[in-house]
Amino acid sequence: MLKFPVQSFRKSLFFKLVITYLIVILPLILLGLYLYNWSYKNASQDLSRATLAQLSNYLKDLNREIDWMEIQQYDILEDNDVNRLAVTWELMDNVDRRETLNDLVHRLTTFKGSSAYIKDISVHIRPIRKTISASNAVHDFESTSYDYFSGTTSRTGGSLIHWGQSLYLSAGKETGVLGEEPLYIVQIELDTEMLRESLQQVNMYSSSRSFLLMDGAEFAIGSDPEADRTLRDGAAALTEPNEQAYRWIVDGEKYHLDTAHSDKLSLMVGTFLPEQEVSRPLSKFKNWAWVFSIATVLAIIVYAYSTYRYVQKPMLYLIQSFRRMEGGALDIPIEHQQEDEFGYLYNRFNHMLRKLQMLIDQDFKQKLMMQKAELKQLQSQINPHFLYNSFFILNSLAKTGDLDRIEQFTQMLGEYFRFITRNGEDNVRLAEEIKHSRMYTEIQKLRFSRRIKVRFDELPEAMEAVRVPRLIIQPLIENAYEHCLEKMPREGLLRITFGAEGEAFRIVVEDNGSELSDERIAELQDRLQHPSDTHEMTGMMNIHRRIVLIYGNGSGLFLSRSEWSGLRVEVRIQTGEEKGHAPASDRG
């Protein structure tokens, strides 16, 4: 029978896990709901502020246009030529009549072209029974228009008048006799389609719609046919001016509505947006919040049951097993004061660690010694290689009889072999390794100064103290000479550059050879990254293995195509991944 090794249920792991889960999850659910409501409110307010500013600017522009039209209308009303036509028509000869009418038509046409909101301008002159307009010039007297607007004209300048399907400005010239009809009326018809187009500019979103509504719902126009349909169904709810955002419901559809009103024009301009569009950015959040809430309740139930079944009971069995596992332990005890199941587990674990420590130490030291032996073997393989090539170079110089170059060469060769044969540390400062490699290029210049050009950059100061295995750069340069540059019929190019990013250092050796195909380069890189016992231990493999042994994965050689279409070999040293065999820099 299983027994709890704790004093009470409240101290058990099962109880603590369930309570902790509830404490963490429930505040997150409440916070999510609060953030959703807060975000929706702010989104609506931000939308309303921007929209109301847009609507106010639209009304100001429209007011300016109407004011300007009224000024021009008043000028035409007081025009001497119009007055002469109405009063002295019978006294004017035909030439004078025609010239005056033509001048008036020209003025009306000019006035019409001065504003995109004007569809037509007409002057109805009652005494001569003629109507002059910008669109139709001189034609028969429009008695219907005259009768309608004479009944609405009580001053020299008026606000907007709705008639038919359009809006008008109308002003009449009174005779001075009480009750007598005006001598003539100046009528300006606004372009409804232009008003519709101007409303489209108010829409801030693709799903927004806007409208103009006259007080009393006498005239209404939307930015498009869809806006017209919505306006027809919901205009009754918009008869009261309201310069604030509110919810507008039309046929069950909810809209976010913003309006602005002009007292002078008796017009309301508004824009509406479906509420789902306002909350669209938050819709997924809302849906997932509900899913998360429901899933959380289910998860609490499942978690409580699963914790007991899959954690609590197996843990009790594990505790009993630990009582029987007193055969070993590591020497890293866990400090604890717990009184739950883990308290007993930690006690048994600490006892086990002390025994395991001895076994791990033995295994680790053995692997470390094998690793150092492999490193020594890899380094020893590369030392004789340059010796063979050096004798070939010296032999060539001897055949030419150039004693000065032989003397220079042997001096440099002595410095070179002093570096590779000295009994010291296997790892040297990068500055020494680069000095040695630069010496090698100087030796090669004695042979190929005319045929091979070498660019050897200066080593950055930040990289000088980095510790690296000996002979990792010079063999790469030697490889470029032996397998590429010496055989080239054209001028050979060799470049050695450096780079540093934090604790990562880079040395790049690249040439302009064309011996290797892209497939061959990829194959060589694959061998470097996935070495096996069947692969031949080449110079590159030797260098790569030594760097990886010291600095770990992420370091080593990386091959690619150079910008000269030759081979590019990048030596990466990730000092942050260093395994501890060589210090990243001198510290003594």
UniProtKB/TrEMBL annotation:
It is found in: Cell membrane. GO terms for cellular component: plasma membrane. It comes from the Bacteria. GO terms for molecular function: phosphorelay sensor kinase activity. Keywords: Cell membrane, Membrane, Phosphoprotein, Transferase, Transmembrane, Transmembrane helix. It is a multi-pass membrane protein. This is HAMP domain-containing protein.
